[in-house]
From TrEMBL:
Comp. bias regions, Polar residues: 16-26
Gene, per the UniProt record: Drc7
Annotated ranges, domain CEP76/DRC7 peptidase-like: 274-347
Name assigned to this protein: Dynein regulatory complex subunit 7
Annotated GO biological process: cell differentiation; flagellated sperm motility; spermatogenesis
Subcellular location: Cytoplasm, Cytoskeleton, Flagellum axoneme
A GO cellular-component term linked to this record: motile cilium
Annotated source species: Cephalopterus ornatus
Amino acid sequence: MEVLEETEEVEQTAEDLNSLNISDSLQDVETEVPEEDDSVSSDVPGFDWSSIDSSHLPSSYKTNSWQEKKLLHIADHFLQQYTHVCPDRKPLFLHPVNECGVEKFVSTTLRPTLLPYTELYHWSGCASFVSNYLTMEPLKCPITPPSSLYSSTTILKYQRGNCFDFTVLLCSLLIGAGYDAYCVHGYATQEICTLDQTQDLCPLLRKTQEVPVTKKSRKYRVKILAEPQSKFELQQKAKKKEEVGDVQKKEEEEEVVTEVQEKPKRDPLHGLRVHAWVLVLSGKRKVPETFFINPFTGNSHNTTDECFLGIESIWNHRNYWVNMQDCRKGCKDLSFDLSDAIRWEIMLPENNKLLTESSERDTDDMKENEERDMSFEMPLSWVARLNVSCREFENQYSQGKKMILYKQAKLEKWAPYVNGDGLVERLTVYADLDCTEVVEVTEWFKNREDMLDMREMNKQTQLTTDYFKPGHPLLLKAHTYTSLEPETGHTMEFYHKARADDLRKRVESATEMTEYFVGRDDFLHIRHVEFGERENGMDTAGTRPDVHLRPIVQIKECFHRNPEKPADEDVEERIFMIEDDSVQLTYHLEDHDTIASKVAFFRATQRDRKGEEIFLTRDTCVKYQPWSSEKHKNVLHLYKLLWELRKEQKELKHQVRESEAEVLNVLKVREDEEANIKLTVSMYNAAKRECQHEAMVGSRQ
């Protein structure tokens, strides 16, 4: 049977090529599988479908019921009428043979199934599952549909198939999930048919387009007179524009040349390549607009997408429709109103009755119209119920990994728990089209005990940023670094709502440290600390300075406005010069003020001859308070303020040392976490717990 199928395909192909005056033979037609599938399919070279074991399959796979035989008879009669009405069109894809060599109507090959996984309740989850779970195989002949269409159970078992196999499985899942989905037999571009995405931008790199805000036009506007300009200056600007324009023209010409080089060569089979995809009509499941789904990628497309060049027919599990519309402009102008009998020819009438008038033999004896019941319901699917175990669903990739090549980017995907570090996805961005110079690498993780979710590595700046989910023991949200050694430059972001000090971000280097706060009761939002060199001259960047602490040179704090205090009493900025033993205060401004009030204390801890401390003198206090009241001009008030500042300075120095210790602790914890990576297993992950149970039983034995 397989030999007969191949000879029939070769004969059809030769006739099609001769009629189209194509000189190339079928052996010269290249339908290469893209590189992302080579990594998977290369492990099983030359997979032979004729060698599969079909002895265990149910009887419905090997025989046809009387309803199926009647349906095949109706399909043959429909095909005869179709070829008589449309002799120039290609034969319809109606009843290919299955894996047992038995002809089955395409609608009965669909098996609507709702699998017990929440991800498969939405179309995007179904599409991504099919595109990830199956390995793409090209059609034997790119311009003719296949002579066989296997059941989805067999396709799921071997995890490979052509575009028709992908489409039937995806459509079965979508119909089971409640969507108004249809299988489409049509024509598409070479990139779609061969799964070539090297000219497409990676979806993860596409930026969301911002919707421009349109300003409401006013009826009455005040005309603003233009400012007078010098004619000489305008002439100089015009000359500069001409020079810039010449440079831009050269750049545009170079860009055009590069674009021409990037464009793929013209496909000699453009418009003839057969492809199958899924059509989802609007209405059910609150789908607002009709769209296509490419089963190879799982991406949705608009029905006006230029990648889809025409439609021959569509079908679901209940009926079969032939497209009678002109596709010379692709699918742009197609109407998908299947109730329109002019645009879509249906195979099984939905009214279930055809009125036939009897011939009038005698004008005196008028006979009533006879109704002949032609009702015929589509037989149930001959395919067994689709089943995907928890382990198979979680490990969706046939070889544990999938690689997709995009334009200047490479996307790699792994099943959970395949990698010991929890890596499930990696995006590599390149600077050139040949993908040789790496610019940036982004990695995504799952099931990490340290809650690591994503990692961005910039290969040009050597900066690495780790992003964490809520739940890290140190409340980390993000960490940017070049090395996990201290004093080498670190930016740490925290989940500030879970911290007692409301710290949002800390930026630390060898010479300074800046902390950012949110929502504090004292209105503090920035604390900046400057460090000096160590006394012993050991500025040990990259080592753990547990003993030799960096001397604090300056502490600067910034505060938001406290509306409950007057502006001349509400400090906006205060600077503690530790080495100079001075303090500078700057107050907030009122709405009508222009100059802020300031107070500065210099050398506030001097001693006299008797050993008594002198806190306040004319030489140690400088103030400028143009808007302050008499209270602030009182020396006693300044004396008390100085006492409070001395106490707060001691507390601040202690807090700075605690911040330094926290930075060291975070780095030590992160080193330990990266050295001993642990993955968590959810209590709902039945497949992984089953593997753990088997491993425990094996170790006991």
